[in-house]
């Protein structure tokens, strides 16, 4: 189910008014950790945005017809692109999307030059891809997000320690708007409808990264 901007704003307002935490009894050392929005404590840090990395890699994979793009090569190119981000006057939203549509090969660098997560996602979605290109993305998308999460937590000691502190608890993105990266349900309805959960790919990626970090004595 897709929500309008107004519906999302109203949902956020209700969350603030109700002050409903997106966690279970995980604060007490057990239970499933539900997270969704960055301002929700104590686990909002789990959803701090890594959209740019993911959208860049998606655009890189899908805007290169016939190319087998590995996650590691996409990562290396994303680092290089980040160093040459344009500092010129930004184009309008329509101009940016139009350029990506007219020349898909430009969209990866355009995503790296865009600071707003919503615009990054819009750029990645602005180009129509072939079934074979989409199939290629489906093959690598989990590894992309897992590697992006590894970079995210390994470069910040405090965030790494907070991730490790979740221990062996289940990490679940309780987004009612996303049943691929999340479970498609809000936290307050999640446990009673566990059979209806979506894929929770983001939660699984974070648990994988956390497990690898533990295996390296707490160091990513």
Characteristics of this structure?
220 residues; mainly alpha; 2 strands; YbiA-like_sf; NADAR domain-containing protein; NADAR
What is the count of β-strands?
2
- Mean pLDDT figure: 74
Largest sheet report: 2 strands, parallel
Shape: globular
Low-confidence stretches: 15-28, 79-90, 92-102
What is the terminal separation in angstroms?
36 Å
Kindly report the oligomeric state of this protein. single chain
If helices are DSSP runs of H or I spanning 4 or more residues, what is the number of helices?
Answer: 10
The succession of helices and strands, N to C, reads: HEHHHHHHHEHH
Helical content band: 40-55%
> What gyration radius follows from the Cα positions, in whole Å?
18 Å
Question: Which structural class do the helices and strands define?
Answer: mainly alpha
Strand content: under 5%
| Number of separate domains | 2
| Widest sheet: strand ordering | 1-2
Question: Could you explain the architecture of this structure?
Answer:
With 220 residues, the chain is mainly α. It folds into 2 domains: 5-49 and 151-215, no CATH class; 53-131, no CATH class. It contains 10 helices and 2 strands, in the order αβαααααααβαα. The protein has helices at 5-18, 51-62, 71-82, 93-102, 107-113, 117-125, 131-154, 157-164, 187-190, 201-215, and strands spanning 33-35, 171-173. A two-stranded parallel sheet has the order 1-2. α2 packs across α3, α2 (51-62) packs parallel to α6 (117-125) and α4 packs parallel to α6 (117-125). The two termini are 36 Å apart. Residues 15-28, 79-90 and 92-102 have low confidence and may be disordered.
